[in-house]
Records
---
Amino acid sequence: MQSRLFLLMLITAITGSVLPIQAGINARLGKVSGGPVIAAFISFLVGTVFLAVYLFISRRHSFQWNGIQAAPLWLFAGGLIGAFYVAAITFIVPTLGTALTFALIIAGQLLAAMVIDHYGWLGMSVHEISAGRIAGAVLLITGVILIQKY
């Protein structure tokens, strides 16, 4: 069990490490393509094509049309959030820099995640806000300030 947990944590860290790379690539793409929204569109188009090819080749996944049709509309907001995120990051990274941008992103993610966990929103299990979690958030925000200042 511990090795599985460690592997998941490693995969998560690696996944996080590619986001600044993606932001830098998209920022450069935005400069040559006509702006951050164009770059975000191209990024999502490439990702969509890749996923379509993967689904076609793998044949391991099938659409659950009944579930999709019955889903509440808000479940499709993930695509809107993703498009906003990629376009915003493409615009912001060249100005704030990668380190400060992602320090702020991580701080915002942590604060939102703590609220989601505390109330169990979006079907998540409840993990109440504790003194230790607040201390961790304060340390992270302190890190954001240090990154911005130095």
---
Amino acid sequence: MSAAKKAGPPREVRVIGGVWKRSKLPVADAPGLRPTPDRVRETLFNWLGQSLDGWRCLDAYAGSGALGFEAASRGAAEVMLIERDSRLARGLREVQERLKAVQVRIEAADALAWMARSAPGRFELVFIDPPFDADVFLPALKAAAPLVVDGGFVYLEADRAFTEAELAPLGLVLQRHGRAGAVHFHLLRRSYTAPQTPVETV
């Protein structure tokens, strides 16, 4: 962990699939910014299916925009990027203009406050990838769950594995879980009536 911290985040990441495949996304030097690694994104979109045609997505802690722009590249009809750091939000707008990503909207706002005032059932997929030291995982999940359509997905990156017992009161079912170094990544499904299916771990 200390070696990774010393090395710092990569200076750029690339979109790994879709119409903007191999397009570069700059990664600013900002506290807590930890873009989702290529291998983890590849696993996530294998889980979801390679195409997100017509999906509405929210990237609540956008940072570099790696998750949100990846979703847009793979056909999402609407992608909302929320980033409270105004400097990072400006960088996201520059990428949006460069890619001519008309389906992407960017708002400089606090993610929890934005989700609290958003309409329920608005998205098929919500990404939750906050700075780990903020420890807002549960509040973010509570805010995100009502925004997802029944049967839709919430993706969570955290510094620990979340249990089915923690997720059930939120109406979220753990579908997949993986780990890459210190990062635990979860694919959750919103459905109060979904049957319990075996959790797959990678």
